[in-house]
Amino acid sequence: MNVSWDDDDGEHDDTAEWRAVSDLIESLDGDERTHVSLGDGEAHLVCGGSAKQGLVLFVGLEGEIHQLLSETHRGEEEMVELVAAGQPGEYPVKFVVDVASARKAARTFMEDGAVDPSLEWERQ
Questions:
Q1: Where on the tree of life does the source sit, at the highest rank (predicted)?
Q2: DSSP alpha helix (H) spans, 1-124
Q3: Considering only CA atoms, which of 51, 50, 33, 36 is closest in space to residue 106?
């Protein structure tokens, strides 16, 4: 699986094992490290933001985008400002997730190339 991320040294692109991807997600700070992307052909996962303030994560599969939903803020329309992929933006709080949910989604994507059925998703 191809993995890309940003940090204070710029953009990186590599193949990685699960432990490295997990560490990259946990190290997102919304400043120097703002995104981690996983891809394998047409399928991709992008996680951005800050592990402390909140993360946004989506999976692109078979031409559809699946946005991971927050377990605690479903249905809420309040906006939260985050920096994802180096770009500041406002995101609905219902899409702002914690590290544990992001890691679970990323692990399932790496292992199965799919969205985790135990998590809530919204198709875009």
A1: Bacteria
A2: 18-26, 99-112
A3: 36
Q: Please count the CA atoms within 13 angstroms of the CA of 122 that sit on its side-chain side.
A: 13
The closest of 109, 82, 104 to 28, measured between CA atoms, is 82
pTM of this structure: 0.91
List beta partners, residue 100: none
Domain ranges for the chain, please list them. Answer: 2-123
- Summarised one tens digit per residue, pLDDT across range 5-45 is 887 676 777 877 899 999 999 999 999 999 999 998 889 99
Measured between alpha carbons, how far is 83 from 41 in angstroms, rounded to an integer? 26
Which residues have C-beta within 8 Å of that of residue 41, sequence separation ≥ 6?
A: none
Other C-beta atoms closer than 10 Å to the C-beta of 73 total 17
Provide the token pair at 56.
């946004």
53 Cβ contact list (under 8 Å, min separation 6): 30, 80, 82
- Strand-pairing partners, residue 58, are 46, 67
Indicate the average pLDDT of the chain: 92
